[in-house]
Structure formats: C-alpha cells, structure tokens
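It would be a great kindness if you could assist me with a short task in structural biology. A protein sequence and the structure tokens that stand for its backbone fold form the material at issue. I should value your view on which stretches of the chain appear to form regular backbone elements. The record follows directly beneath this note.
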Amino acid sequence: MKKTMNTVLRLLLIPVLLFSMFAGIPAKANAETDLGLNADAAILIDADSGKILYEQNADASLGIASMTKMMTEYLLLDAIDAGTVKWDQEYHVTDYTYRMSQNRALSNVPLRRDGSYTIRELYEAMAIYSANAATVAIAETIAGTETEFLKLMNKKAEELGLEGYKFVNSTGLNNADLFGMQPAGTGPEDENVMPAKSVAKLAYHLLKDHPKVLETSSIPKKWFREGTDDAIEMANWNFMLPGLVYQYEGVDGLKTGTTDFAGHCFTATAERNGTRLISVVMKAVDSKGQGSKKARFDETAKLLNYGFSQFTKHEIIPANYKFKDQKTVKVTKGKEDSVAIAVKEPISFMVKSSEKDLYQPKLVLDKKSLEAKVKKGTVVGKVVIERTEGTDYGFIDGKEFASDVVTTASVERASGFALFFQGIGSFFGNLWGGITDFVGGLF
C-alpha cells in the first residue's frame, strides 16, 4: 500500500516539476533580443526612418547629465539658421560663466573675466569638450539668461514630442555645482532627467534638422584658442571616435554624459555602408556593477554590433502593390463602373532578414466607392503593415507602417444621356431586387 502511495505521489509531482522547469525559461522572442546590456536603460534606432530596433527600460525617466547639451546645440543651430545668432558674434563673459569656467573639476575651458569669445569657439568647446561654462554662455547669448533659456528648451521638447523630461539647466550638471546661481524656479540639487526613448528622439531630430552637427562632434581633439596664452587642448569625451582608445568603425557622434546621479551615459551614432544608427545607454556599468567610461562604450558597442549585424533595410511593400482581394473600387456616374487601386509609395524599414515575412499588409479603405469624375491618384485609403507574431517596437516618432492607397487611372464622368439610362437601370435593378426580396419573404 505504501509503495502504491509513493508511486501516485511521484506521478502527481511530474506536472509540477515540468511547470517549474519551463516557467523560468523566457520566451524565444525575448531570448533573441536580450543583449545582456549592463545599463539601467538603452535603445537603438535607425537614424533614417526612426525605426526602433531594440529597447530596454526605455520609458523610465533617468538622469541624462551632459547629453542635455544636445538640446542646447539644437537651439543654437536653430538660432544660427534663423539669423538671430551669428557664428562670429562675440560673447562677453559674465560673473556666472567666469566662476563656472574656473572649476576644472568640471569639464571646462577657462574663460577670462574680461574676455570675449566667438559663438563658434564656445560651440566647439561645448560639442567637443562638453565645456559647461561655454554652454551657459551660449544659453545666455540666445535667451539673455539661463532661466529664459529653460523656457526654450521646454518649448522645443514639446515640439519634438519628448516625454518624461525635466530640464533644470542648460548643461546637465547638478544644480549643486552652479554656485547657488541655478535658474529661477529650480531646486538647489535638481538635475535633468529624460527617458532613453526621448533622448533618442532628440538625437534623431537633431541629426535630421542639423546634420552638420556631426562635423564638430566627430572631431577627436582640437585646441581652444590655439596660439594664445589661453590655449588648451580639448579631447573629445567620445572615446569611440577614430584614433581614440575605444574607437569603433563609423562612429562620428554624438554626446557623452556623467554625473553621480546619472552615472555614465552615452548617445552614439555610427554609419556603415549607408546605414546610420543611433544608440543610447544610460547608467552603464561593468560586469562587477561599477560605472565607468569604458562601460558605457562597451555597452554601446553591443548595441551597434547588434544593429549592424542583424538588421537590413527591406522593402516590405513595393510601390504599385495591388491587393488580390481588392483590386478596384466602385465608381458611380462614370464611363467605367470601377477603377483600379494600388499602393502609392513603397514601405521600407530595417528589419531582421529572418523576420521579414512576419510583416503583412492590411488594406484600410476610407472610400468604398467614388463618384466620377475621378482623378488618377485619388486617395481611397491606406495600407498598414502588421507584425503577425512577436514584438515590434515601432518608430521613435510613433508613426505607423503605412502608405496611401490611390487610384491608378482616371474615370471620366458619363454623358447626360448615359447617366439617364444608368438611372433607369438602377431604378429597375432596385425594383427587381425589392420584388425578389418580398417574394422570398413569403416563402
């Protein structure tokens, strides 16, 4: 009896053991996209389309440190384009920027109390060396004060559709480092925060609107005020640039960031064979859990390697694609009673080659019939691309995979005589239909 009970118990335990074994195994799709990144958050996108290729905790608002300066660069380049600020314009040092520039514990180029500097000099110091006082000088030039500049930062963030952000200064420093002169309305120990997804969106639009930013962000080293007593060599903090210690093929930007609160962060961009990627890592650490400059570059390399090795741009739907089950739409009062339809523009984006067939077209018709006269190219709906299984991260701007569906020919309106007979035919057709429905109802 005892032996029988033991056998029964063993049989009952089998399903429990099997469940416990497989419950701990992640789904195949998740395992394929787990890059083992040692970072609090990360994201990788295609710089051309904004297609998100990978993300990890990308919606969490975290410290961004000097990656903030991408926003300051954006606003300066906007002002240059608008003509409200000139590259050769002189900035005269204020007490605030003088005091900040003397703190070499922070990244700075020392400024003379009675000195003046061109906007181009200050911009290069900011973009290459992450010089903080130079950044504040640019903010003061554009808006008068850093407090007013914050308003412009918030306005631009809203225009770009950034989410989860909070700006308290133009540099990314902790306000505790600003000698009590932090912008009005901000706390004495506040710091800028933003999710990795919004950081990537900021970088995406910066490169779209001001691609020349790469001409400066790609400079590994440059002298500030070369040939003067104030000369100082500015080494780019992006050590993945060519010739630097962690060089990575194709890297030419964009912005590092480090504070105690934010940890070691980096927004990178690299181009290979016509494909440009943007990556963001936030609070990167090494295998021992220690933050370091090397860690942020190691984790960035993992992201970029994944993007360049696994993804290729594919044409998911070609132009003039026709749907097997809906090749035409009805036309009323025309010389023809239907018109052919097709996809207007091709839909292409980066996807793993092994997953290309997981994306399928779906026709969404806004107009199921048209009244003549119908012009060629009339929009009747759109085609949307849906993934049949697994997770798709979408686009950084939240747009959908879609293209207009249009008529491929024109249909002239029928003559008055023809319309008369069409009307008669329609009348008797409807009448006959009503009679058959009535008779059918009787039986």
About this structure: Confidence is low (pLDDT under 50) at residues 1-31.
